[in-house]
Description:
Strand content: 15-25%
Shape: globular
Order of helices and strands: EEEHEHEHEHEHEHHEHEHEEEEHH
Structural class: alpha/beta
Distance between the termini: 43 Å
Number of helices: 11
Largest sheet: 10 strands, mixed
Radius of gyration: 21 Å
Amino acid sequence: MAWIDDFSYLLTPLELTEEYTSEFSLGKYIDIHTDDNFPDLEAVDVVIFGVCESRRSTNDDVNRAPDRIREKLYKLYHHGRDIKIADLGNIMPGEYPHDTDSGVKTVVKSLLEHNIVVLILGGSQELTFANYSAYEILETTVNLAVVDSVVDLGEFRDDLSPDNYLSKIVLHDPSYLFNLSVLGYQTYLNDPDSLSLMEKLFFDVHRLGQLKADIRLTEPLLRNADVISFDINAVSRGHSPAGNNPNGFSGEQICQIARYAGMSDKASSIGFYNYSPQLDNRGTTAELLSQMVWCTIDGLSYRQKEYPLLNKNNFVEYKVHMPDNQEEIVFYKSLRTDKWWMKVPYAGGMDGKLGRHHLVPCNYTEYELATQGELPDMWWKTYQKLG
C-alpha cells in the first residue's frame, strides 16, 4: 500500500488508555493509529481522523475536540455490523492555518481515490472548505449539505473563517459545486441578503421549524450530498451545553440526521465541527457528538447501494403528466427501501428523447405535489442549474 506513504506522515498517533478498548466497546473494533501501529487500509470501509485546528475560530480550544469526542466514542458498544473502521489519528496544526488545510486536502483526496468514506472530527467549520477542495483536485462535481443554524456566507473578501467559508466555496473558481443545501437555518440569525443569494443561485435552504416538524424531510437532502458538514451549534443548548444556540435540533433529531448521512450512498466525507471542550463542563456535548459519529457509522452499515439506479427491476417507474404542457415528470420508487427519486432533464426540454437526465433524491411529498399539478421546488431548482 505505497499510496499510504503519500499522507501517513501528516497524521500523529493517538495515546490510548485501557478504558477506551474494554470488552465489547467500539474502540476494540477500530484499527487505531498508535506509536507502534498504522492501520492496514486494504479492506477498510471508513476512516476517522481528527483535525486539531482552531486558529480561525473565536473558541481557541476546538483544537482539543477530536480527542474529547474519541474518549466518549470508543466506549460506546459495538453491535457487530460488518463494517471495517480505522482511526488514523490527528492532523496537527501546520505553521499556518492554510498548511493544515493542505494536509486535510491531501489525506481526503487519497482516501477518496480508494473509495474509503471519510469522517472528520474538527476543529472549526471552515475546514469544510479544505474537505471540499479535495474534490476539486479530483475534478469531481460536489453536492454539499450543511447542518447549521446560520448560512455562513459572511464576507468573501475577508480571510477564510468559520463565518464565510461557504462564500469561499460558492464563489471559488473553478467551481465544482453543483448544489448546496443548508439544513436547519434560523431566519432571525441570518442576513436577508444571504438567504436571497441562496435562492438566486437555486440552492436549498430549509428552516429549522420545517425540518423539526418532520425530520424525515432531511433524508433525501442528505442522500443527494457528497460532502456533509455538521456544526454542533445546529443543536439546541438544552441538548448541547457547549453550544451557543437556545433553539435548534434536539439530540435525538441530530442523531437521526447523522444516521441519514451515513446511509447515503453518495456521501463520501462527513465532518463534525465547532465543538468547544472548555464550554462542555460535564462532557454532555462530547457524548452527543460521539453518538452522532456512532449513528453515522451505523448508517454506513445499512447502505443499500441504490445510487445510481443500475438495476431498474428494483424500482417502480411513475410518470406524472403536468397540466400546463405535454411533458411528464418521471419518478422512481425503490422496491427495497421505498425511497424516491425524480428525473430532471438537462437543457433541451423535458422530453427524455432530447438529452441526458439527472436523478434527484426526493420523497413521496414531491410525487404527491406533481400528481396535483404542482411542479416540485427541488425539480425546478435542479432544472435551472442544468439549463
